[in-house]
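ok posting inputs for the magnesium ion job
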Amino acid sequence: MPRIIRLNQVLANQIAAGEVIERPASVVKELIENSLDARANRVEISIENGGSALIQVRDNGTGIHPDDLLLAFDRHATSKIAETNDLERITTLGFRGEALASMSSVSRMSLTSAMSGHNAFQVNVDGTSTLSQVTPAAHPVGTTVEVRDLFFNTPARRKFLRSEKTEFDHVDELVKRMALSAFSVDFTLKHQQKLIRHYRPARTEIEQSQRVASLCGEAFVENAVFFETEACELKIAGWLGLPTFSRAQADLQYFFVNGRMVRDRTISHAIRTAFHDVMYGSRHPAFVLFFTIAPDQVDVNVHPAKYEVRFRESRLVHDFIRRSIQDTLASLHVNQQGVVGELSDRVGIPDTVKISSHTIPPKMQQTLPLHVNEKMSVYRALQQEIPNTQSDIAPMIHEIPPLGFALAQLKNIYILAENSEGLVLVDMHAAHERVLYEQLKQQWADANIIAQPLLIPLTIVFSEREVDCLLSQTDTFLKCGMQIERLAQDRIVIRSVPAILREGELEQLMRDVVSDFMMHEKSSRIEETIHHFLGTLACHAAVHARKRLSIPEMNTLLRAMENTNNSGHCNHGRPTTKQFTFAELDRFFLRGR
Ligand code: ADP
Ligand code: MG
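and the output
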């Protein structure tokens, strides 16, 4: 074994660089973070050859004091913290004092900076030597950093670089994230001198939603709601994609903690749990969310590139995020267009798009405009056709309910209804399923699911493993109104069922349930499993598509939907209603042109 030696500074920095500087995009990240920490409101990024030839970041921030220019390149040299206590309340993006040192050890760098009241100076640092000089330069207040020939002296790293296009795509994605995190900053991104992106500062809510639209696509903003929740000194705000806008990949998920984009298990789990009720398990929600927490409640010093964080009270954070999202999703039921209307106004979506994209009718007018009054006579006439069996319809005569009144049934699958805005289409099975599911969840929470004994107990044959699995959940079943017992190794008997399941096909239900439980057997996600079970129950108890409903029955369902959380989507995330406004219909039929 050779003897121990102390590594020289360049080599030590190159080793440190391994952790933070993986590719051009990592350089861009560190440089933009420095610009934002210096309170710049304009950041210009210029890239040559995907970043392997040149990465230049220019800002109009505070600049660096001339006497500190060389020091900035030393490892563990920073202006952002000074003592141990500071580590516990970090409000800047950087604090490790490593980025410039690391970058300069694997590239040819120059930094030009001017502070207000001082002349501008430049430092040139070359990865092969520790010698560098400060020379006078011309530069307005702010800083420009150039990183050339990245990894020129670490060929192993350079080999890992992908094509220029791929590397530039990574830079592009990175700039996008930074632009999401700092709405008030003007960003430009050039590749080979060509302007590729320009994100203008966004101050008003409308400008912000436009910026989100330009970063994440128009479709996202049109299919998202903006919300804001604050409690226990925690705050979450942002755009939540509707369950119907779910994606096959987790590729539209941006979560910022105090302005820092992070990937965190606690957070992902909280969001997934919040969505599990309204979305297929294999789909991924889309969101751009900003979480604010006191700096001393979060440790950002757990990852070299600071992609991860640790919360002091992770349970509190988890529950706060889950609840906020759950409540927001639940508030999207059809009876609360007031909320949706207001949210949509904030994100600046024009009315027609808002209505059709949320599949929810807009806010009811307090004073009904003329055309609605005209409609009233139609409803009155309609009212006379309905036998007076539906007492809940009578009071509606003065007020058109959000989902309107049923007109007919289409193919025994869809309900056609008319409301003040136009035509409403309802998928009756999906809608009924949601209504029952929400009822069941409530009854479950109140331990109030009513059981009904079976006159003739039902015996079902399963595999032995399936029987084991079902019996391990005996208590869960009991709480749901189902009494099950083992009859033999391979069969069970059902003695009672939830009263709600009047005419369901019990055997099919149990087969669905067992495969569900088998899938979730090893997971500890009890609540999720139970909700799954309740969902299956609801699905079996809901009116089947292709069943004929009378007009009063349809109206009863519409009223129930208006009073049900999440009723805009069935529990698999499919929409339950679709509004066609008169304006849309007129446009389609080229009326009034
Ligand atoms: P850190 O950001 O963790 O402090 P860096 O190596 O990234 O470490 O930067 C070292 C120091 O150089 C910073 O603390 C800051 O004072 C200064 N600095 C770097 N970039 C800029 C910039 N664009 N504007 C102003 N100061 C900067
Ligand atoms: Mg930094």
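notes: The chain has three domains: 9-199, 205-331, 351-593. The two ends are 90 Å apart (CA to CA).
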